[in-house]
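Hello Y.,

Per our agreement to keep a running log of every chain we model this quarter, I'm adding this entry. I've kept the format consistent with earlier entries: sequence first, then predicted structure.
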Amino acid sequence: MTNYVEHLQPELRVNYCKLISVSVDDAMNTRETRDALGAAWPFLMDTDRKLLHELEMGDTTDSRHGEIYIPYTFILDRDRTIYKIYNGWWYVGRPTVEEIRMDFRALMSRRADWIYTRK
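Predicted structure for the entry above:
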């Protein structure tokens, strides 16, 4: 998440884009994480993991360690429809700053007002 704070956060406001993180930690740990990162976007909490279960984001294939929650990233359009989903760990499923930037550009290019005509 440090990369998002350092490289993407400065561009978000001027480009009318937003991030939201959802944490399974309690309020104190969630605030401490947000503050330590210097993140300016909202961090929501799902301490009882209700949302994770509703969205079936748990991986139960490892019986030794029990349920593990798979990290997801959802890219949403203005009307909150899902444009793209990233899921998983490491380089396989986590989007890079550049991938998120390109997704936002693709969404912005759908807007009727994204190209300014010259007179």
